Amino acid sequence: MSSKTPFPPKLQYLSLGASCIAIAISTILVLLYTILYSQKCSQSFVPFNELKWSTSTDDMKFATNISHIKFILASSQKTLKSRKPYIESWWQPNGTRGNIFLDSPPPKDFLPWPSTYPPFQVNEDVKKLRVYPKLVVPAAVRMFRSILETFWLEDDQNVLGKYDHTKYHYTGMTSEAVKSNFDFSFDMAYGGAGYALSYSLVKTLVPIIDDCIERYPYLRVSDQLLSSCLADLGVDLTHVKGFHQIDLLGDISGLLSSHPQSPLLSLHHLDGINPIFPSKNQYESINHLMKAAKFDQSRLLQQSICYHKPTNWSFTVAWGYSAHVYETVMPRSLLRKPLETFQPFKKSARPPFYMFNTRLPWVDPSCQAAHAFFLVECSKVGDQIRIKIIVWG
Ligand SMILES: *[C@@H]1O[C@H](CO)[C@@H](O)[C@H](O)[C@H]1NC(C)=O
Ligand SMILES: *[C@@H]1O[C@H](CO)[C@@H](O)[C@H](O)[C@H]1NC(C)=O
Ligand SMILES: *[C@@H]1O[C@H](CO)[C@@H](O)[C@H](O)[C@H]1NC(C)=O
């Protein structure tokens, strides 16, 4: 069904919908869509280009930038307040575009609506849907329909006319937890982490959203609704490693310190884990990471590995976050595996827990123990970015 014409990457819809933000259902989201609004946006979008969102030379003139992305955040009145510092850490008034969808108008103590925040939109009442009596989780359907309600807001013929020749893209990532993927789907992008839909896909999806809801009234989460609906259109998920659902508990520094060489796009479930920097609280930690992001978002967290031959020491650096030092030579095949500093998301989970291999941290004084350092500050001297780190643990 997908169109064969080249896709000018003009407008992509990024829906951070779903169970996440979901807000009502789980703890939510926080999207560090850091990458998306850097000054070097076109560079940051290299991964999308690699996915061949853009094919003709004409398209190259219109490299995707932040103005082409519409963020859809599905939230609820109840969770609005606790998410605010997270959203403010990446939202750029007059830079990022989009809306935050709510189940009811914001409470009085949230008014006047902050200008540092995405404009709000109250979702339509799902009770008006014919299928409503059959819905198992009406809140999931409310959030899912934010895509459709966004489209209505945007439905300007002049805008649409320009984006006729496009392809279908559904990009996101599975959960880190085998159990989550088993329970929901291995073929679904997790809405807490966020996912991106190309404009043409949204355009095709919108008219059939309510039909999908009628077909799957028993689905409990909005991202499962979306992936089922897209599967029926013949569109499968393209995995992008930078989206992170963080279906994990405890200290995720081991995972973040072995981030693959893909731009960091999101971090979700931050309230369920330890702060990502020792000695800082949740909000401070995220703002601290974002300080490094301001210097170079495109490299944030990505792991580099090097060796110091005179001493036979190994070093791994997660850019803007941490550095690990080992007093021995350890092969990259080992060092790229995350240290299992975290615990499974669900007590009921059984091994294998994770969708990736891990290695156990060595706690004895053996040479294989990682000496962990964390970012203290970033500064720019001339053309060089200097990073100060501190040992921890
Ligand atoms: C983004 O791309 C549009 C063209 O589609 C251009 O007009 C605009 O200046 C670009 N913005 C940035 C920040 O590069
Ligand atoms: C956003 O732009 C409007 C109009 O250009 C301006 O009045 C407002 O102060 C800007 N807001 C911020 C937070 O920069
Ligand atoms: C480093 O490792 C090599 C190969 O095992 C060994 O020959 C050399 O002596 C080591 N150097 C130090 C400083 O330990």
How would you characterize the overall build of this protein?
- This is F-box protein CPR30-like.
- InterPro entries: DUF604 (IPR006740).
- Keywords: Membrane, Transmembrane, Transmembrane helix.
- The chain is of the alpha/beta class and about 400 residues long.
- It is about 25% helix and about 20% strand.
- The protein has 2 domains: about 10-25 and about 295-390, no CATH class; about 30-240, Spore Coat Polysaccharide Biosynthesis Protein SpsA, Chain A, CATH 3.90.550.
- It contains 15 helices and 14 strands.
- Strands 4-3-2-1-6-5-7 form a 7-stranded mixed β-sheet.
- Strand 2 (about 70-75), helix 5 (about 80-90) and strand 3 (about 95-100) form a beta-alpha-beta unit.
- The longest helix is centred in the C-terminal third of the chain and has 14 residues, at about 280-295.
- The structure holds 2-acetamido-2-deoxy-beta-D-glucopyranose (3 copies).
Task: Give a concise summary.
With 393 residues, the protein is an alpha/beta fold. It folds into two domains: 11-25 and 295-392, no CATH class; 31-239, Spore Coat Polysaccharide Biosynthesis Protein SpsA, Chain A.
Question: Which keywords apply here?
Answer:
Spore Coat Polysaccharide Biosynthesis Protein SpsA, Chain A; seven-stranded mixed beta sheet; binds 2-acetamido-2-deoxy-beta-D-glucopyranose; single chain; 2 domains; 393 residues; five-stranded antiparallel beta sheet; globular; alpha/beta; disordered N terminus; 15 helices
Indicate the CATH topology of the largest domain: Spore Coat Polysaccharide Biosynthesis Protein SpsA, Chain A
Strand content: 15-25%
Report the CATH architecture of the largest domain. Answer: Alpha-Beta Complex
Largest sheet: 7 strands, mixed
Question: What general form does the structure show?
Answer: globular
Give Rg in angstroms: 21 Å
Q: Treating each run of at least 4 consecutive H or I residues as one helix, how many helices?
A: 15
Task: Report the structural category.
Answer: alpha/beta
Number of strand segments: 14
Bound molecules: 2-acetamido-2-deoxy-beta-D-glucopyranose
What is the H/E order? EHHHHEHEEHHHEHEHHHEEHHEEEHEEE
Estimate the mean pLDDT confidence: 80
The CA-CA distance between the termini, in Å, is 54 Å
Low-confidence stretches: 1-60, 155-165
